[in-house]
Amino acid sequence: MRVLGIETSCDETGVAVYDSEKGLLAHALHSQVDLHADYGGVVPELASRDHVRKLLPLVRQLFQDAGIEAASLDGVAYTAGPGLVGALLVGASVGRSMAWSWGIPAIGVHHMEGHLLAPMLEPDPPAFPFIAMLVSGGHTQLVEVEGMGRYRLLGDTLDDAAGEAFDKTAKLLGLPYPGGPELAKLAEQGDPERFHFPRPMIDRPGLDFSFSGLKTFALNTIQRAEREEGGALSVQTRADIARAFEEAVVDTLLLKCRRAVRQCGIKTLVLAGGVSANRRLRQRIDVMMAGEEGAAYYPRPKFCTDNGAMIAYAGCRRLLAGESEALRFSVRSRWPMESLGGEG
């Protein structure tokens, strides 16, 4: 089966073609980073309008890159949620319309299921069952995955997601948008011994997360350092604060992953979502899983952030299982992943 995947849940316009026999044929991505940079975050109306402008040209480019025509497709998959409703409606309406005009089935895909399955695009994919940590700007979750669509939520964030905390702390440090990757880059120059940030909720049982307090601690640390330095922070001080913040987030994620692996007795861990591209997090997770006599799996960095390839793959699996959407479709800003059905 050959499926066109469309991702428009937020500020990335992603498209891809996945073939169940040949694998990923091609993918293309348009980023809206420059569009939203002046605002320091995503403006939903601007995101929707840009998806309208870019989606069809990107699909045409994709077909050209893949050397295929629409007639060779067997289905269309689009992100149906969770996400920004306006942005979701662009991809869903275009995807469903194209499927209708081509006479092929369409399927709405859960955005986080796409992230969770992104490591399946790699040459050495994980086998079911596994524990997945989905860590991005909007989500920080631990999920027990028995199979496609068979998910049990183990832990969730009670407030801010890890990626959101990265971005907001980066903004406090005066780093450009998007801040998470910039903070990680700056942290490489930092002294890990100068500042110490708390590790939220690690002294409590369970697998939930909380990162809002780290932002407040970062703000207080920055303000105290500014008073001590008599004004704007030096580059080294900013790097030291970035390093301390990153270490706190990584330690927290690491501890909860270890706790989940031991609690479920599953030796395979999958990391997905934008923050899973963080180099320090991957290094620490690899060491931890080796100590647990297990293994960790990640998507390649370009498939950690939002992309069409993960939607095409997830959609292909669901279409092969006989699922499809009626002409009347819907999108959801919120959508619990454990409510999804699965393969037998």
Name the descriptors.
globular, 5-stranded mixed β-sheet, acyltransferase, Nucleotidyltransferase, domain 5, 344 residues, Gcp-like_dom, 10 strands, 43% helix
Description:
This is tRNA N6-adenosine threonylcarbamoyltransferase. GO terms for molecular function: iron ion binding; tRNA N(6)-L-threonylcarbamoyladenine synthase activity. 43% of the residues lie in helices and 19% in strands. The strands form 2 sheets. It has a 5-stranded mixed sheet with strand order 3-2-1-4-5, with helices on both faces. A 5-stranded mixed sheet has the order 8-7-6-9-10, with helices on both faces. It is an alpha/beta fold. The protein is built from 10 helices and 10 strands. It folds into 2 domains: 153 residues, ATPase, nucleotide binding domain (Nucleotidyltransferase, domain 5, 2-Layer Sandwich); 173 residues, ATPase, nucleotide binding domain (Nucleotidyltransferase, domain 5), CATH 3.30.420.
